[in-house]
Amino acid sequence: MKEMPKWKAEFFDDVLDGEWARLFKITVPGPIFKFIVFCDWHAGNETCCYSGIEHLCRYVEKEGLPWVSLGDLVENSLRESAGSVFEQNLMPHTQEKYIKDLLYPIRNQCLGMIEGNHEYRSKRASDQSIAASLADKLGIADRYFHLSWEGIVSLDLRTYEGSRHPITWTLLGVHGTGGGYSPGASLNAIHKTERVYEGIDLTICGHSHRDSSDSTNLYGIRMNERMQSPKQYTRQKFFQVCGAAMQYRKSYAQRKALPASAREQFIIEIGCKRMQRVVSDKKIEIIYKYKNSEAFPLI
Ligand SMILES: [Fe+2]
Ligand SMILES: [Fe+2]
User: Which residues pair with 164 in a beta bridge?
Assistant: First the structure.
């Protein structure tokens, strides 16, 4: 196993206008940070790529990669759900145990996790939260965003420990809602977060099972440090929809003539373009997609 990541996580409970939120700050002793996004494995569904996600978790353990989970890790079809209970090859309580066993060796590499609509089914049916219980059993309840379906992580990238010139990235993870089966619809859904959150550099989401990305530049004016004259600034924002781990044949997508899931999970590297004393430009790179290939079989 590679050396464990040297990043440091701190958690802050903050109340704004009577609303509580848990804020996460990750300090990284370097100008680049690489992490992987887990989403939409749907363990328990007969089309889940079991051997792929098992291979993926072993890879993440070997590389010491930090991970974020955006939900729908379990299928969790209940009697009243849209999905059929007869299309599951693991029952819901076994699905949770399966995911717990899979994530246990890499639990300390977790940056944050949220629930998806499939985990939420249990909460709606019986007030039992699969995602909260999973986080608890993994000993990472402090990294579970339990009041909402989204979480914000502030990443503080520094060229060396104690540097006074950090590059701050603010990352928003959402599970996603709505159909979003066309490339445009999945991007529209992720762009909707802009109506709610300000100052986010990178938004990642799952749910639509697609591989879509976008970036945009926002322009603004702010006063200079001495409040003497206004200056222009731009801020580049990035959006990534992060795939799934499901096969097409015999799937819900095939039955409904929907596009097949993008059988991919994303490793994302963020950092800055210029390694100078004052760093202003941010960059993002999808290092590679952990996808169905000989090296990374997601089957
Ligand atoms: Fe999903
Ligand atoms: Fe979903």
Answer: none
Does 245 have pLDDT greater than 90? yes
Contact between 153 and 66 (Cβ < 8 Å): no
Dig out the tokens for 292 from the structure. 């169905």
Tens digits of per-residue pLDDT, 61-99? 999 999 999 999 999 999 888 778 888 999 999 999 999
Domain ranges of the chain: 10-291
**Chain center to CA of 250:** 27
Query: For residue 235, how many other CB atoms are within 10 A of its CB?
Result: 13
CB 70 within 8 Å of CB 206? yes
Cα(83) to centroid of ligand 1, in Å?
11
Binning pLDDT at 50, 70 and 90, where does residue 208 land? very high
Q: Which residues of 151-176 are buried (b: 16+ CB within 10 A; e: fewer)?
A: bbbbbbbbbeeeeeeebebebbbbbb
Kindly identify the ligand whose nearest atom is closest to the C-alpha of 209.
Answer: 1
Question: Cα of 285 to ligand 1 centre, how many Å?
Answer: 24
- Please tell me the total number of residues recorded for the chain in this structure: 299
Q: What is the CATH number of domain 10-291?
A: 3.60.21
Question: How open is the CA angle 56-59-61, to the nearest 5 degrees?
Answer: 110
pTM of the entire predicted model:
0.88
